[in-house]
């Protein structure tokens, strides 16, 4: 990490995981932006007084590891690619510094709202346990043949607005892998604003607007899938991949 970025991060007022529960926003509107890592320090410097930063065991840049599941026909990926309004993702996510692991289901409805449902698990399961299968079936109201489809890892900075009900996640050092296939996205930063409804008065939205950076719909899962699998239909995401590669070149 660049020293200047670390310096800015350490200046932001901390917030604990327990304190952050008030802004959990399990049902929310997500708005994403993409920037080059070189622009992150200045952005954080400009908004640092409006936010607190999540700190766990004295760590402010946290490590996340995820394992996504899909059907053999890659239903979840294809639903997203084919613009299906009601769609879902199933993943296991480990929050490394806090040593917590969850089985999570993210469901998007026709109004653009995202609902996240999760249960605690001991660790990653490449073979889904009966408890996990039951949770997935009850949550999704259907029985699916699921298998591990892609691993994902990244570092995350989480900010909580001091006055507005919003959280901000900043993901960097993104990588994907399955078996011997690996793809890294160096220099790419994905910013995700989580609110009850999109509010343009958010400090980060205002700062990005000054740089002519607009909201950009992007799925880390889908970008990872087309980076690892060469047999997927991806015409809907082709321009997104071109934009990302151009941004981080």
Automatic annotation (TrEMBL):
Stored Gene3D superfamilies: VTC, catalytic tunnel domain
Protein's UniProt name: VTC domain-containing protein
Entry's Gene Ontology BP terms: polyphosphate biosynthetic process
VTC domain sequence ranges: 27-228
Record-annotated membrane-spanning stretches: none
């Amino acid at each position: 990490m660049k020293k200047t970025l670390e310096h800015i991060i350490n200046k932001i007022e901390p917030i604990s995981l327990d304190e952050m529960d008030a802004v959990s926003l399990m049902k929310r509107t997500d708005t994403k932006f993409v920037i080059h890592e070189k622009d992150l320090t200045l952005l954080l410097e400009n908004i640092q007084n409006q936010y607190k930063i999540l700190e766990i065991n004295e760590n402010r840049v946290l490590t996340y590891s995820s394992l996504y599941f899909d059907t053999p026909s890659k239903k979840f990926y294809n639903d997203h690619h084919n613009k299906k309004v009601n769609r879902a993702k199933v993943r296991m996510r480990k929050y490394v510094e806090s040593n917590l692991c969850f089985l999570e289901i993210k469901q998007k409805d026709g109004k653009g709202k995202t609902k996240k449902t999760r249960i605690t698990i001991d660790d990653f399961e490449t073979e889904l346990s009966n408890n996990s299968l039951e949770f997935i079936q009850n949550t999704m109201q259907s029985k699916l043949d699921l298998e591990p489809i892609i691993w994902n890892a990244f570092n995350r900075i989480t900010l909580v607005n001091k006055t507005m009900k919003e959280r901000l996640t900043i993901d960097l050092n993104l990588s994907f892998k399955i078996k011997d296939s690996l793809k890294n996205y160096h220099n790419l930063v994905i910013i995700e604003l989580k609110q009850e409804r999109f509010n343009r008065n958010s400090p980060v939205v205002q700062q990005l607007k000054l740089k002519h950076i607009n909201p950009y719909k992007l799925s880390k899962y889908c970008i990872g899938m087309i980076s690892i699998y060469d047999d997927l239909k991806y015409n809907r995401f082709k321009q997104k991949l071109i934009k990302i590669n151009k941004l981080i070149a």
